[in-house]
UniProtKB/TrEMBL annotation:
Residues 129-385 form the Neprosin PEP catalytic domain. This is Uncharacterized protein LOC101515011. PROSITE patterns: NEPROSIN_PEP_CD. It comes from Cicer arietinum (Chickpea).
């Protein structure tokens, strides 16, 4: 069930197709009070907070404003390096008070969707016992009775990703509850390359589903649900700079936590997690409206075997875990939030790779990196034909 990332445009007569594309563009891309041109060709729309896509969701009609967009603050040089990590904002431009920053969805991205309804949808169900429809993983996981948040520091790479047919490579945090049948609830955040943007730049993304990826959920703001509050970040926009092999490492810090007052899941970033991107209202979920029972961290790729052999799409840096700091990709300072809303080290972290000859993972603990693991690999090689 991974056909959502294939290029398939034959879903109607030409006139009908054009009308559907135009209608979908208008539905996703809300009227902008201001537009910002990014150096990489992206367009960032500054959309009034109350007109964002989230409020098209029937469960969010009349949704009370919980966390209004914040007025951009001046940052010192250290904060700029830590918090302004997207190409479009490096010039210093930002959206004004009362608006949020949204990356405009392009027509070619709609054309890449299998159908208009599947725009931005994925089927990356995280089952540990098999390779799932071409999805391969290297993850660290913890399970328990109740988790209320998780955080991680992740280094960012620009991995090689096969484009014909299109594949993807990502690193993310999963917040999970329910079963892997029809009622899986999942919240996901991290960086990804290729899907669904048509290039290999690493981009900040979010995802959610409340029914095991069947009918609900999507990437970023391409369907109603996630309420954005940030004026300084645009979901789906390119991250810059990226880590350099045997050189400087560039990291992003992300945290998801359940608000004890209203039950919503907040998404934060920044050096001290003091910047909010937005939140998932608890009403979107059937299990995560209460708690999470599994937290996962790690990498994922799509292997289409288009030439009959394993893909050469890289995970992370494209190098195996044993190469270590500066060469392998990593997650560090991993913590989860317990029922007392305390951030604690990971209890009984289990690491696994679904295809160890192609991508692997090695975990540990030390003073510098806390709970951590290195992960990744090149894909196709002598041991991964």
């Amino acid at each position: 069930m991974d056909s959502d990332i294939s290029v398939k445009c034959a879903w109607g007569a030409p006139g009908e197709q054009i009308n559907k594309i135009s209608s979908r563009e208008l539905q996703i891309n809300k009227p902008a009070a201001k537009t910002i041109q990014s150096p990489d060709g992206d367009i960032i729309d500054c959309v009034m907070f109350h007109k964002q896509p989230a409020f098209d969701h029937p469960l969010l009609k009349g949704h009370k404003l919980l966390n209004p967009p914040k007025i951009p603050r001046k940052h010192n040089q250290t904060r700029i390096l830590n918090n302004k990590f997207q190409l479009w904002s490096l010039s210093g431009e930002t959206c004004s008070e009362g608006t949020i920053s949204i990356r405009r969805t392009k027509e070619k991205e709609i054309l890449r969707a299998t159908s208009i309804r599947k725009l931005g949808r994925t089927f990356n169900i995280i089952q540990k016992d098999s390779i799932n429809n071409g999805h391969e993983y290297a993850i660290g996981a913890v399970t328990g009775d109740a988790f209320y948040g998780a955080k991680a520091t992740i280094n960012v790479w620009a991995p090689h990703v096969e484009t014909n047919p299109p594949e993807f490579s990502l690193a993310q945090i999963w917040i999970v509850a329910g079963t892997f049948g029809t009622d899986l609830n999942s919240i996901e955040v991290g960086w990804q390359a290729c899907l669904p943007y048509g290039d290999s730049q690493p981009r900040l993304f979010i995802y959610w589903t409340s029914d095991a990826y069947r009918k609900t959920g999507c990437y970023n703001l391409q369907c109603p649900g996630f309420v954005q509050t940030s004026t300084t970040l645009a979901l789906g926009a390119a991250i810059s700079p990226n880590s350099i092999y045997n050189g400087q490492q560039f990291e992003i810090k992300l945290m998801i936590l359940k608000d004890p007052t209203n039950g919503n899941w907040l998404l934060k970033f920044g050096s001290n997690f003091n910047e909010e991107i937005g939140y998932w209202p608890s009403s979107l979920f059937t299990h995560l409206n209460y708690k999470a029972t599994t937290i996962q961290f790690g990498g994922e790729i799509m292997n289409r075997k288009s030439t009959g052999s394993h893909t050469s799409t890289q995970m992370g840096s494209g190098h195996f875990a044993e190469e270590g700091f500066g060469k392998a990709s990593y997650f560090k300072n991993l913590q989860v939030m317990d029922s007392n809303r305390n951030l604690i080290p990971l209890p009984n972290l289990q690491v696994l790779a679904s295809n160890q000859n192609c991508y692997n993972i090695k975990g540990g603990t030390n003073h510098f990196m806390g709970n951590y693991f290195y992960y990744g690999g090149p894909g196709k090689n002598d041991k991964c034909p």
